[in-house]
Amino acid sequence: MILRALLWILAALVLGGIVHLSTVLAMPQAAKQDAYARLAPVAPVNTIAMLAPPTAQGAVMPFMDPAFAVAVCRYDISAAPLKFSAPVSQSYTSVTFYTRNSVAYYAINDRAAGRRTIELDLMTTEQRAQMPEEEDVTAADRLIIESPTKTGLIVLRALAAEPGLMAMARRTLAAAQCHAEPQPKS
Amino acid sequence: MRLFLGSCFTLVLAAAIGLGATWLTLTRGVAFGALTIGAWTAWPRSGSVDIDPYARATIARTGELPVGTGDGVAFYARTDDIGNPLDGRCSFTVSGLSPPARFWTLTLYDPEGRLVANAIDRHGFTSAEVVRAADGRFTVNVAPRARPGNWLPTSGIERFVLVWRLYDTPIGVAMRTTKEGPMPAVAEKSCS
Fold first, then answer.
1. Closest chain A residue by Cα to residue B109
2. Under CATH, to which class is B31-191 assigned?
3. B74 contact residues in A (CB cutoff 8 A)
4. Average pLDDT taken over every residue of chain B
């Protein structure tokens, strides 16, 4: 009798483990309030949208750094690759690429970019494979990033080292661009 | 009949164990590859494609975006160096030398990641605005009432979280041990 009860409990433990692992793995797909969903109402697709600075009254996302001006390009490259450029602000600027499920797959800062603007082409692996050969060569000084997902987020952050510099940081980010651009046919 | 009862019992227990474990790990913020220095803990892998499933599930639930690895690294403190919880009705100091980074910011949040309202509209310090002593050391006073020097108000909330973000830094990318760079010490001063 006791042995039988122990067997049932053991089965429950194994099943419980499976339930636990599958719910953890399903969470990114099931989450209704992840960063992408929070940004969708304020950031139109394939353009730059400035985010409201976080305040005590509210913020688009939790744990935003209030010392930074933030802009977002919510991209969809299923139809065509994306051209992206951002001027570098005076103190510190970074550009981080996130998949649809908030995984940061690429990040670059102004120093790593090494010039006054950060210029990138964002495309899927298939779109990159379709690029004409010579195009690849002439575009060698443009950075090409492959996105693991067709939709995602590009987040631009510019530091305002003190509150008085926030307006300037926001102006710098407002000059950034992102737009879909059909590929030339090969 | 006994088989039916037994399987019902097993299924209910399995659901309770599985969902309970998921809820616990996601609300506690369990993740692998933690880098702990004093009171500060960072998850450098959360800013890259090597992010583990627990951290992925946590950020999907909270809706935050982790700091990317090429950008910087974020250290979280929920207690002081000896384990006292960060209580907004007490006063704490964050003091020491700056870790190796081009810029850093120190920000105070409530446990859900919201900024805390206060009279002077101060939510944190950046490396450029913090006032330092002659030897480069600094002390930030985290306290409910006004302090001279670098005062970071807590507004007397029950629990708060400090987030130390290092930008353009070798920490978390190049180093993996706990004996690395000087991280500022967090200490409780008084509790009223």
1. A63
2. mainly beta
3. 63
4. 87
